[in-house]
Design goal:
heterodimer, A: alpha/beta, Rossmann fold, Alpha-Beta Plaits, four-stranded antiparallel sheet, 11 helices, 13 strands, 34% helix, 29% strand, B: mainly alpha, elongated
Chain lengths: 304, 263
Amino acid sequence: MLWGMAIIEANGVRKAYAGRTVVDGVSFTVDEGEIFGILGPNGAGKTTTVECIGGLRVPDAGTVRVAGLDPVADHDRVTRLLGAQLQESELQPKITVAEALELYSAFYPDPADWRELAERLGLHTAFGTRFAKLSGGQKQRLSIALALVGNPRVVVLDELTTGLDPRARRDTWKLIEDVRDSGVTVLLVTHFMEEARQLCDRIAVIDKGKVVALDTPSGLIGKADSSTVISFTPSRPLADTELGQLPGAASVERKGDRIVISGTDETVNAVISLLARHSVTAHRLRVSEATLDDAFLDLTEQAS
Amino acid sequence: MTTAHPAPATATTTPAPASAHRAVLRTEARLFLREPGALFWIVVFPTALLSILGLIPSFGEHKDELGGRRVIDLYVPVAVLLAMIMSGLQAMPPVLTGYRERGILRRMSTTPVRPSALLTAQIALHGAAALASAALAMTVGRTVFGVALPRQAAGYLVALLLAVASVLALGSLLCALARTAKGSAAISSVVYLLMMFTAGVWIPVQGMPETLRNIVRFTPFGAASEALDRAASGGWPGLAQLGAMALWTALLTYLATRLFRWE
């Protein structure tokens, strides 16, 4: 297994439903061994994109390759290499955890030991529990287990932590890192910034069916229009004109007696010297770095 | 998503091993046995109804207008058909539409096993349950109420299997047409009442007026009722009725597979 080799390649993938284009020329490659994130607002075309990768949908145009195979024409071979946890996929309400794991392991030629897998995912205490009685976190862990039971090389996890409480979400993140550390490539679909920032090696931001950015989380944050936000309450009023001329300042807002300036590192220095020049004291001065949220909002706003 | 675009099946790659399909059938059988409600309506109810009717004294009297037979004699085949209706039209459609609605079919289509394996397992299990229920009704009819077993056993079996096939095909078509489990229950109820009528649950087909009877004879259950009745009394079921059932099965199966929505 070569580290860094592309295991998923999407090239100009396009998909429309009843004339409405949902995925509009999406291209990216996922390298073996990475956690690759697909981030985007609801309805951006994330799920359709991964459905094309999983061979559930046939793209109208473009190509998809999983380990060099066409997910549609080579459906059976691709399903053995790619495990998927898709949105809104449940199980039979009365099937038990052990039964589901045993059943799904029977689908694959070389399955993982499902008992061991369940133990790793903390499901061994729920073997006899029926699906309908599982907690949200347990259902998600079972979904991950079912996606992994065939010993896949790549696993697709779509909106894994939606609806989980913060604790269960953090546990799930740890789990995804463990999965990657065991050598499985992870394609993670999410609309949670925090999740993408914590987990992903690289992120494709998708909006309105197009990839609007593809970078590492810190690379994306650096691309935000205003990566630094300075806010303070001046001891004496300051003129808007002077504030607007600050180098690198993207915007100046007044919130009551507080001034909020979005800009860059350069702006920070300029603000400090401006204050010194006018002998103005800045009360409750705060300088904060932009987050992935800011980057994301900038990126998705630009596209609209 | 609104429209279904399932990936086309390809014959070029190796399918999942037979053991995978056996595992599906085994699991679905276990789940089937966990549905006491469905089991009651399919297996217990038809025979229970037969037993209650059998306790009505006048139903045990030989009637000239029925060719010297008793009402209870006519109700054994009705109980047999009722078992099939309960299984194929009442119990099965909500299960299959539920599997679609809950994304169980969707999850399965990401594995090497096609989701159709799940559907065929359910169809087979409902067919088996209907046949078991039919056997129970005939056994109770024979031992408790002295209703003779079919004299033309082979003919009876052929008619029975065709009847099961046509009801399962009809149930599958209902799933194909219904968008939701609720919708399937609504369509099922209408079809169910119609089928109950044509199967002679309320008035035995043999007792219907001439014109009505001639129409009902060619409906899936009217045909089944007449074929089973014929075989029960020792004759080979009419080719017209067997043919009608076979045609219904073929037509309904064709429509069900063409119209089935995978999501």
